[in-house]
Amino acid sequence: CLNLRNQRARNITLPAGARAVLSCRSPRLVWTRDNLRDRQRVVHWDLVRRSPEYSVERVLDMSPGARQRVYNSFNKDRVSIPETAFNDGNFSLIINNVVATDKGVYTCNLHHHYCQVHRNIQIQLNVTKSEDRVRRVFVVLLGSSVVLPCVNRRPLWREGAQESQQQVVHWDYQAPGVRPDRAERLVDLYASGERRDYGPLFSQNKMSLDEDAFTLGDFSLSISDLKTADIGLYSCHLHHHYCGIQERRIFRLTVGAPPPSNPATSAPTTVQSNELPEPRDFVLLM
């Protein structure tokens, strides 16, 4: 039996909403010949925060033959380690959809009390603002309609929506040549059911959102009777203030006239207004 030395802390920086894998491996805790003393092996992950006040929080722990125990209800189904950890030595902590409050120093503590094997690995996790993306460029015909997709079906958004959780989605419009900080607010939609429209576009039924947007996790914006004045950038902003989650999706909309008919052809070509070209993806980093 060996006493394993600690390792220096490593730094990992990820944008909010990403999936974090904090690596912790030790083949020396893989021990299959002593079922009597199986409970002597244990792993637990702790989180140390230094601001606003110093605190230490147990994230989860697990021993062979027992389910891993997650201590914070917010982390249920979000934080885990592989169920096969004691078989393959992979005790890495997986955090899905990281948020700002996940920032801190994580310590993987591995113990085999009978063999007096002790090891801890420290990892500093930093969380930055989520990346903004120009997801698609839509080129559509005058007078047609378009749906700008903004979908987030994670349970965090669709289940247990309460006003106190301050879940809100809003759409902005940025005309060509207008600075981002001068973008026009189109609508605010709250999980409580409240909706605030800015301007007449929604009352005139030119723009619309699904009434069950938070239930469905679908916050897509529909725009009808498109005109050249509708050209520009449209952005969908998702905020979960209680959990510190922010996401933004940006779409560039171009409106054009249908191609002129060619009299030399035997039959005119009919262009369906709902046939869109293959979208192109762009990435815009903050």
UniProtKB/TrEMBL annotation:
Q: What is this protein called?
A: Matrix remodeling-associated protein 8
Q: Which Pfam families match?
A: V-set
Q: Name one GO cellular component term.
A: cell surface
* InterPro entries per the UniProt record, alphabetical: Ig-like_dom, Ig-like_dom_sf, Ig-like_fold, Ig_sub, Ig_V-set, MXRA8
Q: Where is the signal peptide?
A: none
Coiled-coil features, chain-numbered ranges: none
* Biological-process GO terms, alphabetical: cell adhesion; cell differentiation
Q: Enumerate the spans annotated as Ig-like domain.
A: 1-128, 143-252
User: What lineage, starting at the top, does this entry show?
Assistant: Eukaryota, Metazoa, Chordata, Craniata, Vertebrata
Gene3D superfamilies listed in its UniProt record = Immunoglobulins
Domain of life, source organism: Eukaryota
